[in-house]
Amino acid sequence: MTVKQVLITGACGEIGQALVQELAKRGGYEIVTSDLSPLPDSIKGLVSEHVQGDLVYKVKVFYDYDFDVIFHLAASLSSKAEIATEEAHRINVEGTMQLLMLAAYRSEKYGKPVKFLFPSSIAAYGMPTLEAKQGAGAVIEEDWDYPHTMYGCNKLYCEKLGMYYSRYHGQKHLDDTPPTFMDFRAVRFPGLISAFTLPSGGTSDYGPEMLHAAAQGKEYACFVRPDTKISFMAMPDAIKSLIMIMDAPRESLTTDVYNLAAFAITADEFRQRALQAFPDAKITFEPNLRRQGIVDSWPEDVDDTRARQDWNWKPDYDVDRFFDEYFLPEIRKRYGK
Ligand code: SER
């Protein structure tokens, strides 16, 4: 079996840790990682090399590598990005730009398209009002692409940069013999929930934070209103989707950016589910104006028909299976409740 060399940036984050574990389980990958932090013990033994530091400055190290696939997960999430906007732009846009340049250079030089997997987000959308959000239903990729946040602007722009580098870079597609372009593929994730790790700096964090707090018997004040609704997905489904879109034959892809959905529920439904499982949970609502505004600008649900049609995407976990077969059994083991 030929071993594929894979780079995972932001490997210490929630998606990164789960992805490293899944690729190691599948086998056939030499996994190189990068992150600001040292690798956690959970994945240390699965990685052939870890480059620690700021990607914008470290990326030159990677010009000596022969990556088949790059998963560019490093990002400053939406709430954090509103507090340090220029820093977020540097991490989210310049970091992505540097890696795209690397992938484009290698693809062209060696005549082999580097696959570039990019997690975009529901934050790429921007619903102008709550009424528009409630009336829009499940939105498709091209609609409502007017993000209200620095993070959302960064994601939407990086989707466009990815398309540029994979199709039109330097207008070389017009040459008699166009070069090999990189192979860019993006998914727009909803809020993600893992039973093993907690997110930090995001705005969909109220979902996972509430559930982890309830499972540990800790009080939790939810920072959005009870009626706040967006879509969420179990972390195993997020990982499954990244692997599926990586493996999909290029000719089956009809677009560069795919919505993904699993279950759309309100903050109050999270609370009800948490109370059913942990009747002593103490969950209150103390909306934070700014974070509420961010979630209010995200659609209630997204339409993932294209991913379903083009690469047979289907989540394993709807809301019932998410709680009954993934989150609650795992979290009970973890916190011993
Ligand atoms: N989960 C992310 C956030 O809340 C959205 O992609 O920032």
Q: What's this model, at a glance?
A:
It is built from 13 helices and 14 strands. The protein has 337 residues and is of the alpha/beta class.
* Ligands bound to this protein structure: serine
- The neighbouring-strand order within the major sheet is 3-2-1-4-5-7-11
Instruction: Report low-confidence residues grouped into runs of 5 or more.
Output: none
Tally of strands: 14
Distance between the termini: 43 Å
Helix content: 40-55%
Order of helices and strands: EHEHEHEHHEHEHEEHEEHEEHEHEHH
* CATH superfamily grouping of the domain at 75-193 and 234-262 and 301-316: NAD(P)-binding Rossmann-like Domain
Q: Main β-sheet, in a few words?
A: 7 strands, parallel
Total helices: the number is 13
What is CATH's topology name of the domain at 75-193 and 234-262 and 301-316?
Rossmann fold
> What gross morphology would you assign?
globular
